Amino acid sequence: AQKITQTQPGMFVQEKEAVTLDCTYDTSDQSYGLFWYKQPSSGEMIFLIYQGSYDEQNATEGRYSLNFQKARKSANLVISASQLGDSAMYFCAMREDYGGATNKLIFGTGTLLAVQP
Amino acid sequence: DVKVTQSSRYLVKRTGEKVFLECVQDMDHENMFWYRQDPGLGLRLIYFSYDVKMKEKGDIPEGYSVSREKKERFSLILESASTNQTSMYLCASSLAVTEAFFGQGTRLTVV
Q1: What pLDDT is stored for residue A100 in this prediction?
Q2: How many CB pairs under 8 A join A and B?
Q3: Mean pLDDT of A83-94
Q4: Mean pLDDT for all residues in chain A
Q5: Cα separation of B10 and A109, whole Å?
Q6: B94 touches A: beta carbon within 8 Å
Q7: For labelling alongside A57, which of A112, B20, B36, B57 has CA 20 to 30 A away?
Q8: From CA A69, how far away is CA A93, in angstroms rounded?
Q9: What is the CA radius of gyration of chain A?
């Protein structure tokens, strides 16, 4: 069955340092997509980064990069040079592609990141 | 900009009431989703829809139903609200292979 696991309920990081948020997934499909979202205390869900299962290169978006290790079924988010505004809940998500007709999107339990000055 | 609008930000209902949560998106997305978010449990998928009148159960469909009569609107229905359905409800929409866009959420309290 499709599943996303985030084992870190909470993390601290010093401002300007890098931090890695862990995500592992389970699927029997060959075609799928992996996402990371940020949810600040305001509650909005902000899309950060996407990795397709067939993408050869790790995705990057500004200070965010996704460390995709397909054989290990892991999709860790790396935030470089942390800023105070990065303090938020972070969710890993996976979409399974059912031939374009049905796309189920599920989320992990989240990691609460606190950036300390 | 994609806009996903949920009809209410806050809602208080009584046990046993029938509750409708409405979600509208303005970008012609095929997929629409309903989640509930609870502390420590993340976002759990209740139902999703990939086309008008088409629906699929998510991981926690019990006690809920959905309706999608028009492409832009996806409704979540609590047939008989119970206190354990007190939660934050999030609606989202997406194209087939893109990221999902979320509404602002509805905080439902059942008393």
Answers
A1: 53
A2: 60
A3: 97
A4: 93
A5: 23
A6: yes
A7: A112
A8: 15
A9: 14
Residues in chain B where the model's pLDDT stays below 50: none
Asked if residues A95 and A32 have their Cβ atoms less than 8 Å apart, the reply is: yes
The whole-number average pLDDT for the span A24-35 is: 92
CB atoms within 10 A of CB A43: 15
Interface with chain B: mutation pick from A25, A105, A112, highest number of B CBs within 10 Å: A105
Of A9, A43, A102, the CB nearest to B105: A43
Q: Hey, CA dihedral for B73, B6, B21, B57, is it positive or negative?
A: positive
Contact list, B96 vs chain A (CB under 8 Å): 97, 100, 103
Strand partners, B68: none
Average pLDDT, stretch A60-87?
A: 97
Torsion of CA A72, A76, A81, A82, to 10 degrees: -150
Say if CB A34 and CB A25 are below 8 A apart. Answer: yes
The alpha carbon of residue B19 is apart from the nearest alpha carbon of chain A, in Å, by 22
Q: Which of A79-83, A84-88, B26-30, B59-63 has the lowest mean pLDDT?
A: B26-30
**Residue B26 CB: number of other CB atoms within 10 A?**
12
B96 and A100 in contact by Cβ < 8 A? yes
Name the band, by pLDDT with cuts 50, 70 and 90, for residue A98: low
Whether residue A91 and residue B42 make contact (CB cut-off 8 A), yes or no, is yes
Confidence of residue A97 (pLDDT cuts 50, 70, 90): confident
